[in-house]
Write a structure and sequence with these properties.
Length: 841
């Protein structure tokens, strides 16, 4: 059973001639069953044999990303691959039909992408230049028009003389400045500024010149000015005119204004000195603007046609050309990355790999296929070998149902090779524990229907590119979580805080009190709805859920301890089996298993009419430790003496198990270590004698070998480690059992929140009745729906999910799960390309 324990692995050596390395790796990557082992992980990838090929692929992918950015910039749609198998088959056809060597196809792709990339850069630069030119011409045009509107025609008059720096125009109006124009020379600064900067610019001008200027700003109504460096964002501009006294040369105010313009990156425009010149310049600007717009439109059309070539959909691959090229480069990069795990020795590449048992025949067949297709190329050689110091990888075959649960386990840690996989058990226990916490008929039904909808219409949702597409991967998990929440809602008889009376009640009112119709009756299913009407409802429900949570927790953890024993049997680790598994299981059963027995036994006794005589389970457990052997009063059965004797026996057995867990294992381990050291020293002495007889005096090598083989470990280290393990188990048994009370706490919180929402939003409208009640019910139901969806169906689902996750990671898996393995990373084109396609989606 491959999902219960990892697939059996075989270690193989592979020798590949360098001239056929690409062809052999290409066909091996199509087999989806190989885990290549890096010959030396300490060697940087840049120093590997095929690092140059990987760099070429990375450079080409960057260039394709630039092309893809331009395509999206022009709001064009790329057809992504829906079926990676079509891409793989298409690449096989392309390479098969080539007359040249297969690996040279990358050279052709590289030349093609380089050429298209350079052409695209040229087109983009031309467009940017034309956009900038159009922006400048539009600015110049509006500088002329708005400048004339601000200054008026009288400013074209020439001054009789110049008096620089002596005229103060602070606070003067433009009409007053016009009157002085005949006798004083004024300078003009006319340009364009971003609309968002005009207030700041005006404030700085006023402060620098101390108000000795006249300034006006008018907004440009044209929205054709764009920012080519920011995805062609529309820019809002304003024309400003600054009039200040002074001659035409350089003076203090002129220098200050120019520096301010430089800080704002403002292009200064020269305003014409007379009306005739003004008309000539304006006409020329408008002519240039029309020509630039026509040229820009023509360049954009060429750009569209050029980008459309990248969007052409291939008949074989069913995706755009740019997507096909991108996937090919990802495929090539992956191939050379796998080849970098090999070591070059002479003219051959030597590598190691793990194969699932039975796949050797498949690989040998693939190697022969390469030789048959390419006559003259030497084939690879596969040889079975013993692993060198590394344990095999862990490999489980998953499907759409088990994938999500296996990921929950892998997030905590990869199972050790051949260790029992918690993922198989998580498929059953995770949705159930979630359902215990989220137990509600109505809310569970909503989650169940969502899971059913995702499972039935998964293909339609995927094709429609719906928002729910990202939840398809966990649709089976949602389905099971919804089912168990729905089922446990019936157990608790809770429909959004309202009990359902489907099976009737076994109680009736007699003299204003609820009494049983038949004292020997058992309710059909779940909880009698009458419990929701009595004064001690919360006390009863809390007691019931809390005890149920403890029972579930003890059963769950006991099963985890049993799995530890199964692992010990499988690995033939009899030391762990006899001195950890058996005493731990006995300790747990005699302590917390005994507590569960008391709870269940108490449930089977009819306490009607004598509830005061019912003993407290908590009191019984406390007295079991603090007052062992004393008669139990009140007793759960008999006169209390036999019960006390049983409890004392349970306590003694549990206490005896503690030293059994603590002491024997370190002693056996220390004895084993000493025995191994003696054997190693004996073997080393024989090696040294052999070297002396053969005149081999490489002393440094001998010392190095001996240090690697001898692993010394003191008894103190072993014993301290076992003390920690023992304390962790004993204290963990208590804390982990208490941790399962979250099953009760989350269920209680869910039920109380649902009750509060019902009482605050709906109960008032239902109680009022009439027209007012109907209005209150309409508004109340709207609020009730929104708050139920937001708090209970979103936040509480996530909360219960995380708590179920913690119960599996900490409380359950800690009993048997080592989580120190590493995953089987199969060499697969399908896998790496599918990951890229999923990122695009």
């Amino acid at each position: 059973m491959n999902f219960f324990r990892s697939k059996t692995m075989s270690f193989q050596k592979l020798i590949i001639p360098r001239e056929s390395a690409w062809d052999i790796m290409n066909i091996l990557a199509e087999q989806d069953c190989i885990h290549f082992v890096d010959f030396d992980p300490s060697v940087p990838m840049i120093n590997r044999l095929f690092s140059n090929h990987i760099k070429r692929c990375d450079d080409l992918l960057i260039k394709l990303s630039f092309i893809e950015h331009e395509i999206k910039k022009y709001q064009k749609t790329i057809t992504y691959s829906k079926d990676v198998n079509l891409i793989v088959q298409n690449f096989k056809l392309l390479i098969r039909d080539r007359s040249k060597a297969s690996q040279t196809y990358l050279d052709n792709v590289e030349i093609d992408i380089e050429k298209k990339h350079l052409q695209l850069i040229e087109q983009v630069n031309n467009l940017e230049y034309l956009y900038e030119k159009r922006n400048k011409l539009i600015e110049h045009k509006y500088v002329m028009i708005k400048g004339q509107a601000i200054l008026g025609k009288s400013f074209f008059q020439t001054a009789n003389y110049v008096a620089e720096g002596f005229m103060n125009i602070q606070g003067k109006q433009l009409d007053y400045i016009k009157l002085l124009q005949g006798s004083i020379k004024f300078n003009y600064l006319v340009s364009v500024i971003n609309k968002e900067d005009k207030i700041r610019f005006k404030r700085i001008i006023f402060r620098i010149t101390k108000g000795n200027v006249w300034m006006n700003i008018m907004d440009i109504d044209n929205y054709e000015i764009i920012d080519t460096t920011n995805n062609n964002l529309r820019l809002l501009k304003s024309v400003f005119v600054v009039v200040y006294p002074g001659g035409g040369g350089s003076n203090l105010i002129t220098n200050k204004l120019h520096k301010i313009c430089e800080s704002f990156q403002i292009t200064k425009y020269k305003f014409p000195e007379n009306n005739i010149k003004f008309q000539e310049i304006l006409k020329q600007v408008e002519t240039d603007l029309v020509e630039t717009k026509n040229l820009l439109q023509m360049t954009q059309s060429q750009m569209d046609a050029y980008l459309d070539d990248f969007l052409s959909v291939s008949h074989n691959s069913k995706c755009s050309e740019i997507e096909e090229l991108k996937l090919f480069l990802i495929r090539e990069k992956y191939l050379y990355t796998q080849l970098n795990y090999f070591q070059l020795q002479g003219s051959a590449l030597y590598g190691s790999m793990w194969l699932p048992e039975g796949m050797e025949i498949k690989i040998e067949k693939a190697l022969k296929e390469v030789q048959n297709k390419n006559e003259g190329l030497p084939a690879g050689y596969l040889q079975s070998s013993l692993p060198q110091g590394s344990s095999p990888p862990t490999y489980f075959e998953t499907n759409e149902i088990t994938w999500g649960f296996q990921e929950i386990v892998n997030t905590y840690g990869i199972p050790r090779y051949k260790e029992i996989n918690p993922g198989l058990l998580t498929v059953m226990t995770f949705p159930f524990l979630f359902g215990v916490m989220f137990a509600d008929i109505g809310h569970g039904l909503c989650l169940l229907l969502l899971g059913l909808y995702l499972c039935i219409y998964n293909q339609d949702i995927k094709n429609a590119n719906s928002v729910l597409k990202h939840t398809l991967i966990v649709r089976h998990m949602l389905l099971m979580m919804g089912f168990w929440a729905f089922y446990n809602g019936w157990i608790y008889n809770d429909f959004m805080s309202v009990p359902l009376n489907l099976f009737g009640s076994q109680n009736e009112i007699n003299q204003y009190k609820w009494v049983l119709k038949d004292e020997s009756c058992v309710y059909s299913f779940g909880i009698d709805p009458v419990w929701m009407c009595v004064t001690n409802e919360l006390t009863f429900i809390n007691s019931y859920k809390m005890k149920l949570a403890v029972i579930i927790g003890v059963i769950h953890m006991s099963f985890g301890i049993i799995l530890k024993g199964l692992n010990a049997i499988y690995f033939k680790n009899w030391l762990d089996f006899f001195f950890e598994f058996i005493p731990q299981l006995i300790f747990f059963i005699c302590s917390f298993g005994w507590m569960d027995f008391l709870i269940i036994y108490k449930w089977f006794i009819n306490w009607t009419g004598r509830t005061d005589e019912a003993p407290s389970v908590i009191t019984l457990m406390i007295n079991m430790i603090l007052a062992p052997g004393q008669q139990v009063i009140p007793p759960l059965w008999g006169d209390g003496i036999s019960e006390a004797s049983t409890q004392t026996a349970m306590l003694l057995i549990a206490l005896i198990c503690i030293p059994i867990i603590l002491i024997p294992k370190p002693l056996f381990l220390y004895h084993r270590v000493k025995k191994q050291e003696k054997e190693i020293q004996k073997n080393q002495t024989q090696k040294d004698l052999y070297r002396e007889l053969n005149q081999e005096s490489n002393l440094q090598e001998s010392i190095k070998i001996s240090k690697q083989e001898i692993h010394h470990e003191d008894f103190g280290d072993i014993f301290v480690h076992q003390v920690i393990e023992t304390i962790e188990f004993l204290l963990g048994s208590i804390s982990n059992t208490a941790s399962y009370l979250r099953l009760w706490a989350l269920s209680l919180a869910h039920g109380q929140l649902a009750e509060v929402f019902f009482q605050m939003c709906l109960n008032g409208g239902i109680s009022s009745g009439g027209f007012v009640g109907a209005i209150r019910l309409v508004f109340g139901y709207s609020v009730f729906s929104l708050i139920t969806f937001g708090v209970l169906m979103m936040m509480d689902v996530m909360e219960c999910f995380l708590h179920a996750l913690r119960l599996h990671w900490v409380e359950f898996q800690s009993k048997f799960f080592k989580a120190d393995g590493y995953a089987f990373q199969k060499c697969s084109y399908l896998k790496v390309m599918k990951e890229n396609v999923d990122l695009n989606e």
